[in-house]
Amino acid sequence: MTGSPSRSTDSATAPAARRSDSTRAAILASARDRFASDGYERATIRAIAKDARIDPSMVMRYFGSKEGLFAAAVALDLHLPDLGPVPRDEVGRALVTHFLGVWEENEELTAVLRVGATNQAGAERMQGIFREQLLPVAARVCPDPEQVPTRAALIATQLLGLALTRYVLRLPPAVALRPEEIVAWLAPTVQRYLTAPSP
Fold first, then answer.
1. Do 77 and 109 contact (CB within 8 A), yes or no?
2. Residue 154 lies in a domain
3. pLDDT tens-digit readout, 93-115
4. pTM for this predicted structure
């Protein structure tokens, strides 16, 4: 008999947890859409809540502030590949191929780029992604440790420039390129930034 209340409580909390997860996911999805379409400054908690079909107070309950919501909405993992098994002279191709796949499949990253191009909070989030995820990859390959930040930044000019022109500005020649053409054009440049002697 003593075990019955515990089982009842467990069965009651499971649906509540699912509702909580569902609400959080709905808020994040709405926030990503709003930040992408309106930018950080114009996107409002009220509009995000309306899109998610919940009360604005729920957004604040889950995320505390607009800044907290933005940070959660763009907490992206680029899932960068382990370059250990990749031959050193093929690392540039591996990175470009990986990033191209990420951009093609992940609209959230494009949303972050749109916000980052127009807003300080977005720019700081992009800088964090760069610092936390791309720098360690470059550090494992670059021949001169003191040049890692410079080389990684140059790599970012290629990868972010591709994303900006192909997915945000949608320049027709950039959009028209086939993935294999993009890799063929960009991989040698990224490889040079990674491993060529410093000028």
1. no
2. yes
3. 999 999 898 888 877 677 777 77
4. 0.69
